[in-house]
Amino acid sequence: MSDSKPSYNIPLGPIHPALKEPILFTFKINGEVVEDLDFAPGKVHRGIEWMGMRRNPVQIAHLCDRICGICGVSHTMAFCRAIEQIAEIEVPERAHYVRTIVAELERIQSHLLWAGVAAHELGFDTLFHLAWRVREDAMDLLELITGNRVNYGIIQVGGVRRDVTVDQFPKINETLAAYEDVAGKLLKLFLEDASIRVRCRDTGVMTRQQALELCTVGPTSRASGLEMDVRLDAPYAAYGDLDFTMVLPDQYAGEIRGDVYDRIIVRLLEVVQSISIIRQCIDNMPPGEVMWETKYAKILATCKKAEGEAFGRVEAPRGECFHYVRMNKSEKPEAWKVKASTYSNQMSWLTMLKNEQIADIPIIVASIDPCMSCTDRVAVVKDGTSAILTKQDLHRLSVEKTRRIQGC
Amino acid sequence: MLSGVMAAVVGCTAVAVYGMVFGLFLQGIDRKCAAHMQARVGPPIRQPFIDIGKLLCKDNVVPDNAVRSVFNAAPLIALAASVTILLYLPVGSFMPILGPWGDIVLIMYLLTVPALAMVAGGFASGSPYATVGSQREMVTMIAYEFPLAIAIIAIAWRLSIAGVADPFLISTIAQTSVWSVTGPFGWLGLLLLLLVLAWVTPAELSRVPCDTPEAETELADGLLIEYSGRNLALFSLSAAVKTVAMATLAVVLFLPWNPSWFIGMAPAVAFIADALFFIVKVVLVVFFSVSVIRVMMARFRINHLVTFYWKYLGIAGIAGLVLIVLDAMFGMGVVA
Q1: Gap between the Cα atoms of A334 and A157, Å rounded
Q2: Is the ipTM of this structure higher than 0.90?
């Protein structure tokens, strides 16, 4: 019967209340149901890679902080890990722990920010206000440790710029205790509320197989039952020494359905997990320096002499964050490629949104925690129409770029 | 003759001004209460007045592909219809101006007019968001009319069984408390119907969880997306007046008591006391059926909304009706 209804197109974006960052969706709607969709990113490309190629690694570390306002630490850590591998810089043990603490605090605030946004998309503003108010504690703690609420600027090539000192421990413990209190309340409010359950259960389903085929990462893939977590698969910083397990939705719900509800479960349980990780870090922090070398001139000189390529993988709050760097005995990197987690996750929208209702578009779009400006690439526009690159074009461009970098 | 017309004109103007001012105050109180429940400070209570003032100063933008006449007429019709509802509703012990010329069934029809005007305006604005919003508004209307009709009909029917003359007239319902003519079964039924009406109010006023037609995060204000300036101000005023109308309807149907009935007072004092008590009742109704509900819920999907109103509230309404019928059958309370 619904076949007889004419379908019509609804553009959503580039600017729309459901989207926190610009991206253009075009939906083909039949009644209230999404028949087909397409999306066009490329509205907030900022040319950060281009800027980075004209700077030295120490400067790029701070540029990395500006890639994303929410997961700046992850980007910086991924970049620094790549540089440290190329230049064979040994990061002190204590710096690893400080990096882990900051990264996990960032995960807490990022997931709570997402929880607030998700509640707002569902039209549940009370929960949105609660989540964001609770998030402030993590922001305050980050300010105490790093000196900044956003763009922390704490991670540097060779370690961290500030130590977590003993006199900060009471405040950290106090905040963590407050979060342990509030975590149960948040879980109850988000997961036992009938109006949220009825909106999120079986909405935007992505099966394990689809998650695997679409190469999704982070909480989005874990909510579909795909066991992928860089912190456990390829431990970095202090994660190898710590005791924690992967968060999967069946730990709360007893089953994995891969819907929006499961993504809420994974993110909220990860907040609880992060509290325990920070506690372990504080208990086991080794003494010592936090920088490999305090003189930046020496770090720069070491980087300048370095030759080779490496990639840094970090589990950002949204999923795997990947930085590829190639140095060739020069001050500037020869190549720097950033792949933010949203880049891997965004194709899953096509699967999740088909045959869903208009009302569920905002929450499904938000459910992968998109971060458009981190992930945006150049959109080629010729004569007013964007050129669509085929698989062959992309392959040719990639070969050409590799040849250009390698100089052959 | 002429003085009668003059009195009617003055009365209607007074009611219109009262509806707008009180409605905006109600919205301010609603926003402040909701903000406090969400641990926020919230805007000052006069904020809706500031918003309307700002909108009235702004230009009216009409989209190129809009049907101009319908687009501009819709807000006026919505406001006029909302004010007309108020003319049939009492304020405290002040009986409605047009009371003798219409009854509660007319009010049910009038309540749909602002919504229909919004639908027409939405379709006329030529935006896909507004089109989706208009479709949803129509579905919402179909969904909540049934429980609303049950609540109203049940009360009028019980009054008619109790032998009250003209049970459908507003002045009759306002002067004869339905609680006084029913027995224990009837009270249970009335409580159920009160619950039903409390849930119909947010749908009628397009507030969370029933704001699907203008869902901010989905349709970017749906129906109203193309409206700006004075037209939007008129729609906002119509929403404010409708808030008063819906709350007054609930007060008339279920909470019609006045302090002057219990305590002997001089006529002037009684009038003021009744009016103040009436305002308190309206504020309470708005607080419980708008502020509290919108603070504790996520937005419904349109199919949830229809299921909720037809299935759950429909069954609750029918159960209330059945209890009231049983009440009359067993001769509890007053039966003529």
Answers
A1: 17
A2: no
